[in-house]
# Entry
Amino acid sequence: MRFAPSQLVVSLSYDLNNPMKIRAKHKVAGMLLLDRDHANRLEKGWNVPGVYLLLDRPNAEGRWGAYVGKATIPGLRHRVLQQLKDRAHWYRALLIRYESNEDETLNSSEAGWLEGRLYDHLSKAGQVDLHNRNRPQDPTLSDDDETSLIDYLLPIESVLRLIGHTLYPRPVGAPDGGGPLIKMIKPEPKPDKPAPYVSPLGLGPNPYLLRNPTPEAVREKIALIMAGKHPRVMGKDPGRRV
# Structure
């Protein structure tokens, strides 16, 4: 198996009601992220065979639910619109199709194989709860066909991470302290420092004055002054020393 890094191209429309289009630049996978409320606006060009993920919103711990499905004829658009009526849990759908050549699409066997592998991939993830009752039954493909379809998995995982659906819990040593990918990071409290002693004349910190001195500290302070070794600081007036 070969997994190459995926450069994702994300297309956003000026119309916020339009779906977000996502493409793995060097692969044949075309992806589209669709909000449930905008499913009826899905273009008819997506009525082609493919696979889809119905996504639940992640909870406070970063866990999320998903349903893995496939669409043959008439296609993804028809299947997603049907899932509007059949399933109420999802808020977004991620659609995946073959996009390299407009005259070609995934066939039924390829869509079924990819559906099964996506199910396996998500079922092993620590952050995902699948709504599928059973594992999809996928057909056997040639080694060459399997190798081509395996390359779909990493771009799909990259897209899921991009939209905040991580597959595995964040490690405890992560910069955000583990848990959900997105969380409020509170500033660390600064250690308490004793306030400097200010002279009654308002000239700022005075190194010759002590707060709550002990006899030992007083003797040490006098010895430093007598020896001329006590440090001196500037007061408010730059031309005057305290």
